[in-house]
Specification:
Layout: H1 3-9, H2 13-24, H3 28-37, E1 45-50, H4 57-70, E2 75-81, H5 93-97, E3 107-113, H6 125-134, E4 139-143, H7 154-157, E5 160-165, H8 172-176, E6 186-189, H9 197-208, E7 217-220, H10 229-242, E8 254-261, H11 265-274, E9 281-285, E10 290-297, E11 300-307, H12 313-321, E12 324-332, H13 335-345, E13 354-355, E14 361-365, H14 367-370, E15 375-379
Parallel strand pairs: 1-4, 1-5, 2-3, 2-4, 5-6, 6-7, 8-11, 12-15
Antiparallel strand pairs: 8-12, 9-10, 10-11, 13-14, 14-15
Length: about 375
């Protein structure tokens, strides 16, 4: 184990802070340390705190961290702040609000700039959560930027997601239900001492009555006074028991599609339509010399590939192996970070990140590095 990794594993907060900065800045040396530490992850419970601006998320995080410390749990807080237009960094409002913890070595607070990241997070948030987990923290609390209805990425990182609401939102509860309302494991009505708390709870109950399966808990809090925090921790424990914690790395990638090489695209499409799939996208990717048809299949897709020229890599694949699985594609939150880690590990990459079907950024990894299957990595939420 390298010196920096050893320091972090031994609890050196300075080393943790320096490597965290490097991870944010995509420094290859820091990413190499992260790669070395990744096998130690999987211990921490990751909590996501999201909700509209003004809901008191930072105050709630502060109260949660204090309560967890009273239970002798170590905590890392990753607070994603809006990017400063002047410096490009975070505004650091959360560090200012959490100054009472500055002398407690059991709490590590990191504000990070969103840097144009979508979904209420920064692109490096997942890697930073992995670093804190590998450093031995019991809880990693991720506080998002104040989000809108379609900014739900924190649910992909967190074991338990808390959606924070406040009285006085009125019809805003109805407005945002199609987005962040649907990712909640727990609804927190903060500032519940204010008029309107009963109405918010009634609206939540009404919406939840229309859904099937287990219902998210609803907990009232007054974070500034610590009211409801013990009950909230109990709800977190219950929600954690209902959800199987993801294995290390689960939160950071998912299957995007399976690429299947075919000799005749139309014949292949007709087969998959017979089993209930439907094409939602067709394209010719000139640089790869293939005709593509995409068929959604649950959270993933089937990508059918027909060569457009005799000298394409897919044509050569068909000539050598015949029709069949050509590659597996994984979505990753930060493609360039993943590429940096792969290079540090000695993996063989077949191209630099570039635009592919649908405009997403991608890179291929040679089968010699993956166990025999061509692997494609795709930038998540690429535009």
């Amino acid at each position: 184990m390298t010196e920096w990794a050893q320091k972090i594993r031994s609890g050196d907060l300075r080393a943790l802070a320096r490597v965290a900065t490097g991870v944010e800045n995509r420094d290859p040396r820091a990413l190499a340390v992260l790669h070395e530490l990744a096998p130690f992850a999987g211990h921490a419970r990751i909590l996501g705190i999201t909700g509209p601006p003004g809901a008191g998320k930072s105050t709630l995080v502060d109260a949660l961290a204090l309560a967890l410390r009273k239970h002798d749990k170590t905590v890392a807080v990753i607070a994603v702040d809006p990017t400063s237009r002047a410096t490009g960094g975070a505004l650091l409002g959360d560090r200012i609000r959490m100054q009472q913890h500055h002398a407690d070595t059991g709490i590590f607070i990191r504000s990070m700039a969103s840097r144009g990241g979508r979904g209420g997070l920064a692109r490096a948030t997942g890697d930073l959560a992995l670093l804190m987990d590998a450093a031995g923290k019991d809880f990693v609390v991720i506080e998002t930027v104040g989000v809108g209805q379609d900014e739900v990425d924190v649910a992909d990182l967190a074991h338990v997601t808390l959606v924070v609401l406040v009285p006085g939102m009125g019809d805003d509860v109805q407005t945002i239900k199609a987005g962040i309302m649907e990712i909640a494991d727990i609804f927190v009505i903060n500032k519940s001492d204010l008029p309107g708390a009963d109405r918010v709870e009634r609206e939540l109950q009404a919406m939840l009555s229309l859904t099937d399966g287990p219902k998210p808990a609803i907990v009232r809090t007054v974070a500034t006074e610590g009211t409801g925090i013990p009950e909230l921790l109990d709800a977190v424990e219950h929600a954690s028991a209902l959800r199987k914690p993801p294995a290390p790395g689960r939160a950071f990638c998912s299957i995007d599609h399976l690429g299947i090489a075919v000799k005749d695209l139309e014949d292949a499409v007709r087969f998959y339509e017979c089993i209930g799939l439907a094409v939602n996208h067709r394209e010719t990717v000139e640089q790869e010399k293939v005709h593509v048809a995409m068929l959604p299949a649950g959270d993933s897709r089937i990508e059918l590939l027909e060569p457009s020229t005799a000298d394409s890599t897919v044509a050569k694949f068909l000539e050598k192996r015949g029709p069949g699985l050509h590659h597996v594609a994984l979505r990753v939150p930060d493609l360039r970070a993943a590429v940096g880690r792969l290079r540090a590990s000695g993996a063989r990459l077949l191209n630099e990140p570039r635009a592919g079907a649908g405009g997403h950024l991608y890179v291929f990894v040679h089968p010699a590095s993956t166990g025999g299957v061509l692997l494609e990595l795709i930038q998540e939420n690429a535009s």
